[in-house]
Amino acid sequence: MNSTWKRLAVVVVAAAVVGAGYVYWKQPKAPTKTAFRTATVQRGDLFVGISATGTVEPEEVIDVGSQIAGQIKSFGKDRKGKPVDYGSEVKAGMVLAKIDDALYSADEARAAADLKQQKALLKRSQADLEQVKAKFRQAKKDWERAKQLGPSDALSAASFDAYQAAYEAAQAAVQVAEASVQQARAAVAVAQATHDRARKNLGFCTIKSPVNGIIIDRRVNIGQTVVASLNAPSLFLIAKDLRKMQVWVAVNEADIGKIHPGQAVRYTVDAFPGEQFEGTVGKIRLNAVMSQNVVTYVVEVLTDNESGRLLPYLTANVKFELENRQNVFLVPNAALKWSPQPELIDPAYRKDKDGSQPPNSSETRKPERKRSVLWTLGPTGLLVPLGVEEGPTDGMMTEVRGKHVREGLDVVIGVQMGDKAGANQQATNPFVPQFFRGRSH
Question: How many angstroms separate the CA atoms of 428 and 431, rounded?
Answer without folding.
Answer: 9
